[in-house]
Amino acid sequence: MKGKVFLRAFSQMRLTVVVRKHALPPNRTRRLGLECIPGSSRIKGKNDGCWRGVGAWDLHGSNRERHEHDLRVRKCWSYPHINGIFAVQWDVVPVIHSAIALVQPPRDIFVAVDDFNTADVLGWLLNGTVGVGSHQQPFLQGFLPTAYMYTLLTVNETIYGSGDTAPAVATGPLLMDNSTLPLAYTISQTESVSAFNLSTPRRIIAMFHQSDLYDEQNATITGIADAAAAFRYSLNTLPLQNEYNETAQIAALAAAFAGCAGGVAACPEALITSNPTATFVAAAADLAARATIPYVVVGQDRFNASLGVHLWIGMDNYRAGFDAGEALVAAGARRPLCACPSSDEMYALRCEGMSAAYAVAGVGSVLAPVVLDPFIAQNAQAQFLAYLQVGKMDSVLCTFAPLCDALYVAIQLQKSNPVIPIAVSIGVDPSTVGLLIDGIVQLAIETAPYTQGFLAMIHTGLVLEASSDTIARQLSIGGSPRTWGCPAGYYYSGTTEVPGTMYARLPSGAMGLGTVCAPCGVDSFAGADNARACSACPFGTYVNATAAVTCQSCLDGIGIGASGCAAFFSEQEVPPTSRASVKGFAYAGIGGFREGGIGKTFLPHTASCIPAITVILSALLVTFRREPIIRAASPGLAAGVPAGSLMVIVSQLILQGTLDKATCTTSIWLLTTGFGIVMGTSQFDFANGAREILVILLGEWVRPWDEDGPFPDI
């Protein structure tokens, strides 16, 4: 894209030489209109090192190769038809300047650079050694994806590319020359800003043309307000009209700009409006141009590049209607009816788009559009019922989502032989979600109303705070089709009486998804779209998160502590077949219990005194540790052996009962501690042995203190 822009500029100025640092790949060479051999400076069909027309050189190589390139540049400048150089990278420009200074060609050489290094290119533009530079606005390349991802994560809405085209937002090439140096400097300064300075008070005017009965418009205004609050702007939303009146609407907007005659301070600093008619947009653009403020239009209908509109953002209603018509044609509908909530042009454009799709397909007979008031439900239901009874239609395009609610009621009111038409909705409300799940509505086209407003204000703020924005005049939001009501991992929580909401505030205060689709809870999942209830995880599986589409196995090594796996692990427990033998040996080591105890079948009653004997012997070793015969036997080690051995035996005994977290943890602790007491006393002195036992028992809790504290010799 950058190459095409420069080639157009070069063709207008008859500039024909292209210089680049590295060899172009063949596909890009062809795309730029260059004819060269990649990795070489030889041009097809020429052997003298120069050529007529467009060519490319690789300035990357050895000193000898660069010297040869320099000779070729000098030789080519002796030709009268060479008068311009296009450098694809900024660091090539000093080489070009050096060659110009050495050769001193008899004519001016126009230099353009397809790059923008602020420290150098600004100076070259200022002194005239570079005629034009291309700025890619890297600040926007980081900022905008974050903003688009934010709305995707919070409300599941973001920018959209129609058809098979992925959404693409161009931040460059923004061509800079001598006349745009202040703008180039401002944009370059933004690159070093980590946070906007939002101390300057700014007032933004917003005007929309529908009444507050239209929930989609209300969501758009809420999006504008949320983004304005993030920028600390004052938002002035002009009163809505009950019915759109073009003359009155334009007059009300002009009155809001009346203060501009008294000075800039009285003017708003930006304007955002809906797109009711071409006349209204032209009048609003004129007011904004006189006040020299950015103007953003929500809605891409009747895009007019000649108007002073900074950005047309939102959905193309004609295109949405065309996509809906194609879906109806593909579903076999041949007598479609387009239903509108009013005579508003946006709904008329949706009907026109549907009719165009049928005209292109060359099938069916499109019925004349009808206006049904969705806010007087009984009237809309009655009219739909009349159409169903006479069999006029086999399909319906609801240009306003609540109209499909009325259609659903009319279907239920049919007495006999009910007709269920194919239905497509432009827009999604809580009831439409239920109709998608029930199959009454086969397809809905998202309008993303909240994100239209939020991103309209985000782009306005970028202009005001950074003098930066995309180079395109249009940004598509809305228009994506969906056949599902609630996605996998969620279930439909709405009812006829309480359908839920499309949006709801998150605890942080940000806007998030509403209550119409609720996430599945812990240990439950919804593996497919349109679930009316979540399924419990099968036995032996679990999930700790919400909105799960599948469950994990309890044997994955992570689910050991999951509540849903407790019963599974209990059932998987297999008592050891040697349990009785292990108990016998253990009780033999520590002594049996009295009659009635679990050791009664193994040992006589007198064996229960063995633990007491062990304790007494250890105590005697401590008491008489200074006696020569006992001191020679290392009393510290001798006292630790029976105590540690007792702990090792008990660690195995408790595993013969119920296995749970407590018994397993206790067993491991007793085993390792007992073994350490038996084998870990390195000093024969009893006091040092006791200190080592303390270290074994307390572990890392005592080590930091021990290193500099009372146990320096351990």
UniProtKB/TrEMBL annotation:
TM ranges: 602-624, 636-655, 667-687
Pfam families (UniProt xref): Peripla_BP_4
Residue ranges annotated for the Periplasmic binding protein domain, each copy included: 219-457
UniProt protein name: Periplasmic binding protein domain-containing protein
Alphabetized UniProt keyword annotations: Membrane, Transmembrane, Transmembrane helix
Transport found in the keyword field: no
UniProt key word Oxidoreductase: no
